[in-house]
Amino acid sequence: RRLYFDTHALVCLLEANGFTTQQSEVIVSALVKIMSTNLDMIYKDMVTKVQQEIALQQVMSHIGGVKKDMIILEKSEFSALRSENEKIKLELQQIKKQVMDEITKVRADNKLNLNLEKSRVKELHAQQDRALTQTDRKIDTEVADLKTMLESHKLDNIKYLAGSVFTCLTVALGFYRLWI
C-alpha cells in the first residue's frame, strides 16, 4: 500500500513542535496503522472487475426478463394500469397542494416564532446592558468613594506626621536649651 503523505516529514514536524523522536514515531506509526485499517475496510467492501461483470450480466438478464414481462403487461393490463396511474397522479397533485399549503403555514408560524424569539432576545440583551451599566456605575461610585477616603486618610496621616515632627523638634529644642 502507498501512503499519500511523507511520514518522515510528519515526524520532523512533530519534533519541531515539542515532541520527542520516540513520541513522534509512535504517533506516525499509529496514524499509519489507522490508515491501513481504514483502507482494509474500504477494500473489503469493494468488488473486483470480474464480480462487477458478473453482476452486470445478471442485471442485463433481469432487464431482458422485465422487458418481456412489460410487453405481456402492455398487451393485457397496461390500459388498466394507465387509468389507475392517472387517478394516483391526481391524488398526488391534491396531496402535493395540501402539503404545500401546510408548508406555507408552518413557514409563516416559524417566521412569527422566530421574530418573537428575536424580540425576546433583544429585550434580554437590553436588560443585560442596563444591568451592566448600573453595575458599572456602582463600581465607579465605589471607586470614587474609596479614592476620596484614601485622600482623607492621606491628609490625616500628613497632619499626624507634621504634628509628630513638630513635637519631636520641640522636644529636641527643649533638650538643646537645657544643655546649653
From TrEMBL:
Its main location: mitochondrion. This is MCUR1 regulator. One of its GO terms (cellular component) is mitochondrial inner membrane. InterPro entries: CCDC90-like. The lineage of its organism: Eukaryota, Metazoa, Chordata, Craniata, Vertebrata. Keywords: Coiled coil, Membrane, Mitochondrion, Transmembrane, Transmembrane helix. It comes from Gymnorhina tibicen (Australian magpie). Pfam families: CCDC90-like (PF07798). It is found in: Mitochondrion membrane. The chain crosses the membrane at residues 160-179. One of its GO terms (biological process) is positive regulation of mitochondrial calcium ion concentration. The gene is Mcur1. Belongs to the CCDC90 family.
